[in-house]
Amino acid sequence: MGQMSAKAAAAPRQWKHIPRLVVFDLDYTLWFPAVDELSGEPFRKSLDTGAVSDQWGEELHFLPDVHAIMSVLETDPQFHGVTMTAIASRTTEIESAKACMGLMDVSISGSVATREADGLVEKKALESIADYVAIYPRSKLAHFEQFQQQSGVAYEDMLFFDDEFRNVCDVQQLGVTCQHCRGGLTEKAWLEGMQAFQKAKKTTV
């Protein structure tokens, strides 16, 4: 699984169509292992390394490319101030997932204020990046209905990433562009999702 370079994040692709809402699943899409595979609270964050672990010391990790992809959403002028971000998870471990979102830091490189300065990285909790959150064990259709009502964004202007094919099949029914990322969120999956969004918008014009 290749990691997007800081250079790649700082010099992103140019896209004709930009989604107004990008939605990510959590378990095995953004991070691993699944929250319900951990031993539960209290979760701790190392002051030295920033690593987040459960009560028995097992650590939760982001997929490697997550940091660079979130950096694009947070700093690329094509997306910054245009695209909102949402988290949709069907986990039954609701409080654990929310606790981990508050502890897990995403490394945001190439921030708007420091784009010209090489190597500067801002740490932002995943919780602070997400504009909308739906974490409860129902169909992803319910999650997206919530997002549509809260954001006012049309389903056709949303892009969704999930490692489970059944969720992709469900959400596609709404007219959302969906990218199945079986191995989690990678640079390849991100680019394929954006390319699919371009194609979908082209066919609806």
What does this structure look like?
With about 200 residues, the protein is of the alpha/beta class. It has a single domain (about 5-30, about 65-205), classed as HAD superfamily/HAD-like (Rossmann fold), CATH 3.40.50.1000. Helices cover about 35% and strands about 20% of the residues. The chain is built from 7 helices and 11 strands. A 5-stranded parallel β-sheet has the order 9-6-1-10-11, sandwiched between helices. It has a 4-stranded antiparallel β-sheet with strand order 2-5-4-3, with no helix packed on it. The radius of gyration is 16 Å and the shape is globular.
Rg (C-alpha, Å):
16 Å
Instruction: Quote the distance from N terminus to C terminus.
Output: 35 Å
Number of strands: 11
CATH architecture term:
3-Layer(aba) Sandwich
What is the fold-level CATH name, i.e. the topology?
Answer: Rossmann fold
Within the largest sheet, what's the order of strands? 9-6-1-10-11
Question: What do the pLDDT scores average to?
Answer: 90
**CATH superfamily assignment?**
HAD superfamily/HAD-like
Detail the poorly predicted runs.
1-11, 112-116
Relative strand content? 15-25%
Q: What's the SSE pattern?
A: HEEEEEHEHEEHEHEHEH
Write down the domain tally.
1
Give the biggest sheet. 5 strands, parallel
* Class computed from helices, strands and strand pairing: alpha/beta
CATH C-level label: Alpha Beta
Shape: globular
Tally of DSSP helical segments: 7
Helix content: 25-40%
Summary, kept brief:
The protein has 205 residues and is of the alpha/beta class. Helices cover 33% and strands 21% of the residues. The chain has one domain (6-30, 63-204): HAD superfamily/HAD-like (Rossmann fold, 3-Layer(aba) Sandwich), CATH 3.40.50.1000.
